[in-house]
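hey so u asked for the seq, here:
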Amino acid sequence: MKIDTTLYTGRPEGERLPRELACYDLLDRLEIPYTRIDHETAATIAHCQEVEGYLGVPICKNLFLCNRQKTDFYLLVMAGEKPFHTKDLTKQIGTSRLSFAPPEQLEEFLGVSPGSASVLGLMNDKAHRVKLVLDASALALERFGCHPCINTSSLALSMADLRGKLLPALGVEPLLVELPDEG
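ran it, structure tokens below
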């Protein structure tokens, strides 16, 4: 994967998609500092692991899930290397039969395409259709990486800014879970 190893501390110059620029607008408005790195498409956690070394923080896994009826939607944020098993989550959030939500709902609710999901996409969920679920493995991180609604850049943010500034500004109260490290 080709990675521009330059670390940037502000919004990019030049042409960018509106969904990405909206992320920088939000972070700047909330005075949340971030470090940014640009790279080729990193749509999976395996691709993101390459980026982690340059960005200097672990990139979290962001899974967009729904119940069988497609009436409840969840964005699960957890450590990238941690395995995910639906049975471990369903017990803790009181739902059953979770699966990956369709790409159409990801685009409709979070304004992102598959491989670009992140907590920053919650800014597009004005109706609060998506419940944020934070695993203890992500909460334990001082700083973490995520995409700015596009998977050709990654940002490093502090968990304190996420919990203390970003989520309150978006009106999001996360569900906290503790998923096991092994299946």
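The radius of gyration is 15 Å. Residues 13 and 25 are 13 Å apart (CA to CA).
lmk if thats what u needed
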